[in-house]
Specification:
Blueprint (H helix, E strand, L loop, with lengths): L10 E7 L7 H10 L7 E7 L2 E7 L5 H7 L6 H23 L2
Antiparallel strand pairs: 1-3, 2-3
Helix pairs in contact: 1-3
Family: Belongs to the protein kinase superfamily. CK1 Ser/Thr protein kinase family. Casein kinase I subfamily.
Protein name: Protein kinase domain-containing protein
InterPro entries: CK1_Ser-Thr_kinase (IPR050235), Kinase-like_dom_sf (IPR011009)
């Protein structure tokens, strides 16, 4: 792939078969472009060979990584804060998809 534009960024790349009947990657890219802080910025989206490609910022450790870091124990406050953020993210996704 030739996507280098001279920037060194930590990114996550997602490849999906371009021939998929329901390409999941396209609405996901639209959601991420419309999303507030906490949702990775989309650097590039397009077709490369036989694949749809999505390149986005890698924000840091996953929730599971943080859970393991905390000896697999989270306080009630932490769980409720995570739940609030997840509900907000799902609400955003449904809002963006509804206006498609």
């Amino acid at each position: 792939m030739s996507l280098d534009k001279g920037q060194l960024l930590e990114t996550e790349q997602m490849f999906r078969d371009a021939g998929e009947q329901w390409p999941v990657i396209i609405p996901e890219e639209e959601i991420r472009q419309a999303a507030p802080a906490g949702i990775p910025h989309v650097r590039w989206f397009g077709v490369e060979g036989d694949y749809n490609v999505l390149v986005m910022d890698l924000l840091g450790p996953s929730v599971e990584d943080l859970f393991n870091f905390c000896s697999r124990k989270l306080s009630l406050k932490t769980i409720l804060m995570l739940a609030d953020q997840m509900v907000t993210a799902f609400d955003l996704m449904h809002t963006v998809i509804a206006f498609r």
